Amino acid sequence: MGKQVLGSGTSVGANYREASRGRSKAEFIAKMGDCLKELDETIYWFELLSEGGIVAKEKLADLAKEANELTTIFVTIIKNAKENSAQ
Predict the structure, then answer these.
(1) Over its length of 87 residues, how does the chain's per-residue pLDDT go in tens digits?
(2) Predicted TM-score (pTM) of this structure
(3) How many CA atoms within 13 Å lie on the side-chain side of 84?
């Protein structure tokens, strides 16, 4: 599971970098969507690690909080990008 968290967690940054270098608004939105997908997967692995008793919930609390905060930020970015592209 640790390798899964490492993969999905680092993929968020890689996809964000790709999004920021996107050649079009559509590409930007799609890559930001990939960021959300990877964040959701990372949160899922955090939950499994915690609920499975593999890692203490307290040790993952800050990471899970940050992942949820990033989710909120990315949802807002995508929403704004979609609204701006419709104008």
Answers:
(1) 889 999 999 999 999 999 999 999 999 999 999 999 999 999 999 999 999 999 999 999 999 999 999 999 999 999 999 999 876
(2) 0.88
(3) 11
For 26, 49, 60, the CA distances from 23, given in Å and listed in that order, are 8, 37, 36
- 36 burial class (0-12, 13-18, 19+ CB within 10 angstroms)? middle
Query: What tokens does 23 get?
Result: 């050649």
- Fold topology of 2-86: de novo design (two linked rop proteins) (1.20.1440)
Task: Answer yes or no: are the C-beta atoms of 26 and 85 closer than 8 Å.
Answer: yes
Find the Cα–Cα–Cα–Cα dihedral 10, 12, 17, 22, rounded to 10°.
140
Domain ranges of the chain: 2-86
